[in-house]
Fold these 4 entries.
Entry 1:
Amino acid sequence: FIGEGVSDASTDNATNNVGVGYQSLSALTEGDNNIALGYQSSDAITTGSANVAIGTSSLGANTTAHNNVAVGTSVLQSLNTSSQNTALGSSAMSSITNASGLANCVAVGYQAFQGSPSTTTGANGTVAIGMNALTALTTGASNVAVGQYTLDACTTGTQNTAVGESALSGTDDGASNVAIGNSAMGRGNAGGSNTA
């Protein structure tokens, strides 16, 4: 451990952890195999294990979750007990606060799947790659968005696949749509089971 306030808690039952930066891993008590690099990275974790947090405030509210990877400033900042998520890019998955149990999500890019306090586990299995991809998602599960602004207005839509800049960008609750190409089905709500 390197830095002021790093691992302030009793770590008698914690093993194989690396904390570098002011207050990184400062609440750790029993978690194992965690890596936290950066100011206040993983500073709330107590018993969570096998998490990687690189960047200021990354995985900042995580307490007991496992197997998360957060790289970038404020990445997974507010997620507290959710596991098996990977987020890369400033503010990716950063506003999700009440989704205990959210799992198996991938967000890559600035504000990708940023979410909100109303995001729930109904969004499990989300894949968002690109700036602002699926940034508003709250409860829609199994969506795949590749490209900047893809599915960026989607809040409750499920099982949509969008590839290309602004593909399905106007859809908020559509389901089972497939849009491939720049701005494919990008204006207005696409409804359901459409292909473009």
Note: The chain is about 0% helix and 15% strand.
Entry 2:
Amino acid sequence: RRRDLGWNTPSMILAVGWLMVAAVIVQLPSWTERNFDAVIAGQSRVIAANPSASAYIGRGLAWQAKGDFAEAAADFEAAGRLDPDSGEPPRLLAWLLATSPKPENRDAQRALELAEEAIAKGDVHPALLFDTLAAAQAEAENFQAAAASAREAARESDDAGNPQVAELLPEIRKRLALYERHQPYRNTDYGRAVPI
């Protein structure tokens, strides 16, 4: 069944904006050099001068990539307070709580709540929303629902108009295969790559 995510022109513009922020972050040279501290310091300067949700998200992603999940979670929470209408901060926090390689950082129930909150806000691309929901459902050991959500994420990621989202399709398919084998996804790319 397909959910109405309430896509309209302003929410599409906001979603494209968040994807552009993510694309810039992914391409930062200091990420590829694994110089997370430089990114954190730079985003901290931006936050000190002019706090914004995007700056907190950027710093949160750097903390997460570095493996400091408590700092990442705090920054995603701060981003959500600054932009309560956006689904991106709760989506990112849900992803962290569902996929962390460290058991002490996982919280299936909260991840599910945050993923549903992000979906209700409807301003993030559906492929990202359903991929996050699937990870949270798998962490909660509801693998049938996780597989269904991952299939929806795969359908939504087959978006020729958005190559950044379309690039997620192979990874979504890998996660779907895990869920079909009744295994949750663990993001082990920390320290090597920027998480989604």
Note: The longest helix spans residues 9-27.
Entry 3:
Amino acid sequence: GTTSQVHSGTHKVQIASTDANAAISLNRYSNNANAAYIHFTKSRSGTIGGNTIVQNGDLLGRIYFQGNGGDGNYAGAYVECYVDGSPGTNDMPGRLSFLTSADGSPTPLERLRIDSSGIIKFDKYGGTTGKGRVEFGNSGEQYIEGYDTGNAGSGSYLAIGSNTDERMRIDSSGRVLISGQSVLSSTSLTYRLQVK
């Protein structure tokens, strides 16, 4: 088919309606396995179509989700893609981030990241504490939680919870604590498995 381009002073295309027709529908009719898609492209060139290499940490694309709070629109979530390494010819390392706003805040924080090496990182508090948590089911009673202090592992732990209570913890020194978050006593520091 043909390519259509829209250029304006604000470089935006807006779709607005007072009914259910405020939507974008992408349809592809072709006898193959390919689908319709949305394409985001970033270049550091100041010229349309120019080739200037992007850099590590550059934002390649973002999807915004906003809602009206009664006096304006506020962000509820973002999905973002960043350069995650050193790019070059036939080489574009990327990471995908999912951000959500907490209750009482209009600022989305990163909760989940898939980096260029395929590692999935969770952060319940959006990078403010180093704590990640995965919950099973709707009640959150069963969970796995990890905490990274960033201080060479000191104070970090991995915990498993059941019925909303922590049942097992592996602390930064390698101790396995069952039904307790701390050691039983100062005299038991050398014991690696402690049941409370």
Note: The mean pLDDT is 84.
Entry 4:
Amino acid sequence: TAAATPTLAAGAAHDITLNDAGNVFGTVGMTNGNNVTLQDSTALNLAASTVSGALNVTANGAITDSGNLVVAGTTTLAAGAANNITLNNANNFSTVSITSGNNVTLVDSNAIDLGASTISGTLGITSAGAITQSGALNVAGTTTLAAGAANNITLNNAGNIFSTVGITTGNNVTLQDSVALNLAGSTISGTVGITR
């Protein structure tokens, strides 16, 4: 149990592994570290962090951020199906995968790739670059995407299961869904292609 905010610095080449199921951090930040694994028995807030490898976070509550997160490798998040994930600072992710989460909000200051994800609520993505995927997305609630008017959105995995998708901003948009797909109000500056 940490009374103050832990700030971890292992060096860019060294891993940080704090994966005891009884951990209670509150807030934790990484000045530097390679592959970082964190587990918290309650909610977890991520302070400003720089991770040169992968970031794996498991919590038994909401996962939030209070500073910018810079992660060079894959970010994997598991908050539980009833808990929200809100990472809405000026973050810079590579690939983000949601193992479990209710309402999920991600903001990226560049392009973002979505790995295989299971989301029991809504998904909101705001980026300043392309939105792509490298794994199937299963989103029970509404998906809202904003990539900017000049940036493409390409979510064309044959295993995707969306409910409703709305495009706030995007250039050329490609969506694929393995079941029915409902389109919410959208503003698209380029082309749109939908495969079901």
Note: The chain has a mean pLDDT of 96.
